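Blinded run. Sample ID left blank on purpose so nobody reads anything into the name before looking at the predicted structure. Input follows.
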Amino acid sequence: MSIRLPPLNSLRAFEAAARHLSFKKAAEELHVTPAAISHQVKALEDYLGVQLFRRLTRALELTQAAQSLQPKLRAGFDSLAEAVSDLSEKGLAGPLTVGVAPAFAVKWLVPRLPGFAAAHPEIDLRISASLHLIDVLRHAAAAGNEPTQGADLTIRFGRGRYPGFRADKLCSTLVTPIYSPKLLRNDERLDRPQDLRGHTLLHDDTVYFDAEQPDWAVWLKEAGVAGIDTARGPHFSHSALAIEAAADGLGVALTLPKLAAAELGSGRLIAPFKLSLPSKFTYYLVREEAESERPRIAAFCDWLLEELRRDS
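Blinded prediction complete.
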């Protein structure tokens, strides 16, 4: 059976005043004025239809009804405080800072965050897009290259070499050309590698630690296409920029289709060729081993891995 309770503020005001036997001290505890406490208590008395205090000249005295009510309210507020404390101790409520490689943040993670917010409204998520692409042995903290520096966990693009940290591979990454349908005019075709002649090549210059990362020269060689000047064409410092340039019809970008999944799914971009070269780098979920089971971190990791599983 549903029971209609008095307003919480009036119950808190009464409980504090009854404990202190003073409206003034109750007001100080609750950061309101004594007049506000008096008003709340009067409202509670009207609601219950009983007198709770005998107001003497310089003191308050509890009525029998108040003496019965006060300890039960105190127990109730203690129980509420304990429940909130338990939730905090379990680590579900509060901030969680996630450091993310910029292109992954913009093109993959951020569009999916409404789902995480709906599943975990108690977590105050903070996304930090970091330009530090960590792929070497762990540096000293002073170098500013700790995988989890300033964050509870990070999503990094690299080889997974993070000694002292737990690093879970998130996905495999391939490199392939992509372009916008509006790039082609009239009866132009772009369904064979040799059709790239006469088209502008867009270069994804995301900084890697390995000079062997596939580029246009490597891809065209694998495709058996010669006679194309791979030095020409606009260069972009981040994958997200190269993808947007391709979507706007500037040219053909050689980049990670994983980051362009939304555009490829909608038809805004096309990946016309079967030839995809494996990237020597991929995305890793990196966090300190001792922290990996913290509820907030575990909740985000579980959600992230499930989203990636749906994408695969």
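Unblinding after everyone has recorded impressions. Residues 64-90 form the longest helix (27 residues).
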